[in-house]
C-alpha cells in the first residue's frame, strides 16, 4: 500500500453520526469487476430521487469535489466490513478521515489500506469541526503523521494520538503481509533450523493419516 507521511488539502464536513459502509459504498449498484469506486462513493446519497446530483450534498459542491480529508462525527464506518468503503474514499483523493469515533473493523480497514483515521478530544473536535465548516473549502488543512498534528488554514494546531505500531505501518506503507515480510530473514532462518532439528515436521505422511 502507499505510505502516508503528510497530507495537505481541503477538508469536507459530513457532520453526521453513524455513517455506515452501505452509505459510503453501496452494494448492488453496478458491476463488481472494474468498479469505479469514485463513482460508487455515497452513490445513493449524492443523487436526488429523479436522478440528478443533489447540489446540497457536500461532496457535490464545487469546492469539495477533490477533498483530501473527510470530517464526520461518531461511529463512522459502522455496518458491514467491506473494504470498498475505504477504497471509495481513496478513489477521490481522501487519505484521512477525522471523526469523533470509528467502527473498529472500519478503522482497521483504513490502516490496512493507507488511510489515516484520526480522533480528537471532545473539545478539540468541536473546535476543529467549526474551523472546517468556516473554511468551506477555501483553505488547506495540513496533516503531519510524524508530528501527529493537523494544522488548520488559520494556523491552529491540533494534536492526535496513534499507536507506535499503527504509525509505523502507515509511514512505511505496510499492510499485514508487509509487516510479516519485514521479518522474512528471521522466518527463513527459523524454517531452516526447524528443518534440520525436526525434519519430521516438514512432511506429512498421508498414509499414516489414513
Structure commentary:
It is a single chain. The protein has a four-stranded antiparallel sheet with strand order 1-6-7-8, with no helix packed on it. It has a single domain, classed as Alpha-Beta Barrel (Aconitase, domain 4). It has helices spanning 21-24, 37-40, 43-46, 84-91, 104-113, 122-135, 164-172, 176-181, 184-197, 206-209, and strands at residues 6-9, 11-13, 69-71, 96-98, 116-118, 141-144, 149-151, 157-159. The termini are far apart. The chain has ten helices and eight strands. The longest helix is centred in the middle third of the chain and has 14 residues, at 122-135. By secondary structure, it is an alpha/beta fold.
Low-pLDDT segments: none
Mean pLDDT: 89
Count of runs of 4 or more consecutive helical residues: 10
CATH homologous superfamily title: Aconitase, domain 4
**Spatial strand order of the main sheet:** 1-6-7-8
State the helical fraction: 25-40%
Tell me the total number of β-strands. 8
Spatial separation of the terminal alpha carbons: 43 Å
CATH topology group:
Aconitase, domain 4
Q: How does the overall form come out from the CA principal axes?
A: globular
Give the strand content: 5-15%
Q: How many separate structural domains?
A: 1
State the order of secondary-structure elements, H for helix, E for strand.
EEHHHEHEHEHEEEHHHH
Radius of gyration: 21 Å
Amino acid at each position: 500500500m502507499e505510505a502516508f507521511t503528510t497530507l495537505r488539502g481541503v477538508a469536507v464536513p459530513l457532520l453526521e453520526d453513524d455513517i455506515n459502509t452501505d452509505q459510503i459504498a453501496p452494494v448492488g449498484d453496478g458491476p463488481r469487476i472494474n468498479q469505479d469506486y469514485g463513482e460508487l462513493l455515497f452513490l445513493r446519497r449524492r443523487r436526488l430521487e429523479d436522478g440528478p446530483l443533489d447540489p446540497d450534498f457536500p461532496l457535490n459542491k464545487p469546492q469539495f469535489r477533490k477533498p483530501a480529508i473527510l470530517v464526520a462525527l461518531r461511529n463512522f464506518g459502522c455496518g458491514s466490513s467491506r473494504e470498498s468503503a475505504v477504497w471509495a474514499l481513496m478513489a477521490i483523493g481522501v487519505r484521512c478521515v477525522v471523526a469523533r469515533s470509528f467502527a473498529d473493523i472500519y478503522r482497521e480497514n483504513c490502516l490496512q489500506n493507507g488511510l489515516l483515521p484520526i480522533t480528537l478530544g471532545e473539545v478539540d473536535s468541536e473546535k476543529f469541526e467549526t474551523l472546517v465548516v468556516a473554511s468551506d473549502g477555501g483553505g488547506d488543512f495540513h496533516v503531519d503523521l510524524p508530528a501527529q498534528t493537523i494544522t488548520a488554514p488559520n494556523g491552529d494546531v491540533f494534536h492526535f494520538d496513534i499507536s507506535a505500531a499503527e504509525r509505523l505501518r502507515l509511514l512505511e506503507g505496510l499492510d499485514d503481509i508487509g509487516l510479516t515480510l519485514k521479518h522474512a530473514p528471521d522466518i527463513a532462518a527459523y524454517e531452516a533450523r526447524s528443518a534440520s532439528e525436526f525434519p519430521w515436521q516438514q512432511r506429512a505422511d498421508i498414509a499414516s493419516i489414513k
